[in-house]
Fold this protein.
Amino acid sequence: MGIKMLVTCDTGFEKVLVNELEDIMKLNVLKVSSGRVFIEVLDKEDIVNVLRSRIANNVYILLHVEENVNDLEAIYRVVKGIDFASFIEPWQNFAIRPERIGKHNFTSIDIGRVAGQAVIDGYLESRGVRLKVDLDNPDVEVYVELNVDKLIVGLSLTRSSLHNRKYKLFAHPAGLKPTIAFALLKIADWVPGQPILDPMCGGGTIVIEAALASKGVEVPCIAIDYLDINILNKLCPECGTYLHSLCFKNYRDADRVFVGVDINPRFVEGAIVNAKNAGVDDVTLFLVGDLREVVPKLKSIEKEFGVEFHTAVFNPPYGHRMKPGSLGKLYEDAIRTLINHGFRTIIFITSATKVSEKVLANFNEIEVEKFKVIHSTLPSYVYRIRTR
Ligand SMILES: C[S@@+](CC[C@H](N)C(=O)[O-])C[C@H]1O[C@@H](n2cnc3c(N)ncnc32)[C@H](O)[C@@H]1O
């Protein structure tokens, strides 16, 4: 029997996450819901393989799923019935990490309190030991989510969402989550090593994620502080060696073909700091300027360097603090410039959907697909443009 896991991502990117995981390993997809992918992996080492996802936010080992849970008494009953003795040693402490989605007449704090009591009471009955709670630095984190009336109980393998990549010393005011940045690259059908241009790169997230994947830098190797290594070792003692080997085995050279452009020199400076911090300053290039001027120049010299750029991925401004009409012009100019200079796949994410639809209607020579997603808390679309 396989190991059941829950992997979370930003809403709208579930399918891309499944595709990514299927590229890494064989697995069974049990269910997909908003921002959540339930899977069954076949091998213990696949627990590490799931953590290799560049799109996943949080990863859990699933302990129990129960439907029709409507009140706190039911939560207590279900959680108390789970045997935690194989995951929590008598001398270890734990914390409940509660999550609540939907309308209920109680809060997530109530769920945490009731579920915590249930773990303590269940352990006391089965092992005769009263477990201690430590909310700040627990040995074991138990995830309890009530999703409308479905109760999901799991063990956290991630102590913090994996979108928190440590390289982001410079935080762009409208920076993209690295996990979304990589999802956009997947939507572009980009494969590691291929040149990529972000014509409005801000702090460089998309370019850096492309560079990291191309160099074979694995997420669990750079996010080791965010992982619960104790639980991982407990579930799979051989996983530590596998993880360690990944950090060396998959590392490879790449060419300097990951390019970002931004009109604001301060952001370009920040992108360079982030790239250096990520260890990809040798394969990235960040240029200051208006994309309308820089893209033609970049294309005029590409042959000299034996590189051809035909994929652009970006996250343009959404128009806050911009003059009326100027956002549409920027979008139109950006798409026109890219198409005129041979870009065949253009991906962008924006919450300015009305402006985007209006602009895209002005182009005949393209095919457009769109995917509804949530970016931060904003309903947005990812647009995939291909030239005919
Ligand atoms: C939403 S931000 C991109 C954030 C970026 N994806 C990140 O993760 O940090 C949009 C960026 O577009 C840049 N920008 C706006 N107009 C531009 C233009 N004409 N040419 C190049 N960059 C431009 C802005 O300076 C801003 O940094």
